[in-house]
Amino acid sequence: MPRVDDDDALDVQAARRGDHDAFARLVTRHTPTVTRLMQRFTREPGMLEELVQDTFVEVHGSLARFRGDAPFVHYLRRIGTRVGYRFWTARRRAVGTVSDEALVELAVDGERGVRDDAEWVHAWLARLSPRDRLVLTLVYLEDCTMVEAAKLAGWSVAMTKVQAHRARKRLARLMENEG
Amino acid sequence: MTSDDPLDAFERAAKRARHESLPTLDVTAAVMARIATRREARVLDPRAGATWLCLAASIAVAAFFGVLGAADWSLVTDPLGVVISTFTMEVP
């Protein structure tokens, strides 16, 4: 019994043989998944689209390395996480931030809409280092277990746990000092 | 419901933020165009192929003279220098 989704498996095999229509089908099928993931990395609509494209272009370039022993979507999310993390490190603290005034405006818990909640959460995460931001994004926003977060980040589980623990402490300290 | 612990407030907001609506993107055409551009750039770049060819030829010449025990390495290094300077030369 094949372990990967049948449509994906067939399209991946065809895309490896140079079938561009097959890769286009993969892109169309998984655009919402990648969009949701990349929305954790930027709040700018133009940049969001660019990161989604970057992820698929990178997936195409590394399709030969996909072993097929796990669902294609896992591979896609791993590469997307790498693309997003690289974007953060390249534009450290410059992306996804909102001003201090906006943070105060959004600060009343329980009176915000979902979009405001997302803005508020991103604003705090944007004040952390890329490593802290990545682990908290995966755990809190992507609802990953430590094992899943470790796989997406490419870290060991032990290191991910330590990173998450330290990141939580740093975020709490930051919120107490600035909140 | 509010809490004094800022991390609790953060966790609650993050849980709600997970359900933020997604923008609808159609990136398929743009992605395929970028992939095609990259592929063409690889295929059409004559300098990439020429560099490897020159490198291989240089190694072959060096090996040839090395095997023969020819001590005059200027026969190898001079042409190699010309090749390298050709590819690294700034075009005004």
SSE diagram, text form:
The complex is a heterodimer of chains A (179) and B (92).
Chain A: H1 6-16, H2 20-38, H3 45-61, H4 72-90, H5 100-105, H6 114-125, H7 130-141, H8 146-153, H9 157-178
Chain B: H1 6-17, H2 28-44, H3 46-68, H4 74-88
Brief sketch in words of this structure:
With 179 residues, chain A is mostly helical.
Could you characterize what this model shows?
Chain A is an all-alpha fold. Helices cover 70% and strands 0% of the residues of chain A. Chain A is globular and about 55 Å long. Chain B is built from 4 helices and no strands. The chains are: A mainly alpha (179), B mainly alpha (92). At the A-B interface, α2, α3, α6 and α9 of A face α1 and α2 of B.
The biggest sheet of chain B amounts to:
none
Percentage of residues assigned to helices of chain A? over 70%
SSE pattern of chain B, N- to C-terminal:
HHHH
Mean pLDDT reading of chain B: 79
CATH fold-level assignment of the domain at 1-96 in chain A: Rna Polymerase Sigma Factor, Chain: A
The total beta strand count of chain B reads 0
Largest interface: A-B, 40 and 32 residues
Number of helices of chain A: 9
Number of E-state strands of chain A: 0
Q: Return the average pLDDT of chain A rounded to an integer.
A: 88
Q: Which CATH top level class of the domain at 1-96 in chain A fits?
A: Mainly Alpha
Query: Which word captures the global form of chain A?
Result: globular
Q: What is the straight-line distance between the termini of chain A?
A: 53 Å
Describe the global form of chain B: elongated
Structural class of the helices, strands and pairings of chain B? mainly alpha
Strand content of chain A: under 5%
Whole-Å distance between the termini of chain B?
Answer: 68 Å
